[in-house]
Amino acid sequence: MFGLDKHQMYIASVVATYWFVSINMVYLNKVLMSNKDISIPAPLFVTWFQCVVTAIICWVAGKTGERFRQSAYQQVHQEDGGIAEEAKPSFWAQFPVAEYKIGVGRRVFPLSFVFVGMITFNNLCLKWVEVSFYNVARSLTIVFNVFLSNALLGSSTSSKTMLCLGLVILGFFMGSQGESNFSIYGTVAGIFSSLFVSLNSIYTKKILPAVDNDHWRLTFYNNINACILFLPMILVFEHQALAAAVNQQFLSGIFWSAMSVAGFFGFSIGIVTVLQIKATSPLTHNISGTAKAAVQSMMAFYIWGNEATLMGVLGIFTVLGGSLLYTFVKMSESKANSTPRVAEQKTDVEMQKPNNKRVV
Question: What is the mean pLDDT of residues 89-111?
Answer without folding.
Answer: 91
